[in-house]
Sequence to fold (186 residues):
Amino acid sequence: MNGVYFDEEGVCVGSDGHVLVVYECGKTKFEGKILLQSGEEIEGKYPNFRSVIPSEREEYEHRIDLKELYQACQYHLKKEDSNPEDRVSILHKTYKVKVLVRILNVFIAAGLLNKATIYKSAPDRATVIEAKGMTGIIMPCQHMEDTVDVDMDDGSAKTVSYESLVNDYAFNSWRKPEVKDWMDEA
Fold:
């Protein structure tokens, strides 16, 4: 996170430009301050974070298991053919896999991933992930619908559907990587 802001209402807010997390556990001794991870104070005024958090909450018809999504994203990032810019499309909204992992890591660190819910939002708005005491938003990416689940043989970033991402994890993560015999290359 670029810095954590402790507001007067007992919340702390962190953002890195792609995700924003509001945690209801501010420390009063830091009230009104913006601190770096090192503890150094940053001078300035923190942006109005409340204005960027969508107020409407509508759950997906089928609840998305965020723990499973996190594990599938982690598996995807470790694959030999993954690209740091790869994206996942969840019901027509697309997110960078590595950014999705970052916001889910915050919920894991707070022990709230199993209690969190991801909500629908308008295509041009941030997506809300929320648990009691914590609200996070993640900005979606643009993608072409006809490129979802298309193999990119040139090594460029790809967009996979949520279903393909989770299925790949479920069907392949348990397999041991194939060990190449150096003799086969001779």
In short: The longest strand covers residues 19-23. The first helix runs from residue 66 to 78. Residues 59 and 119 are 5 Å apart (CA to CA).
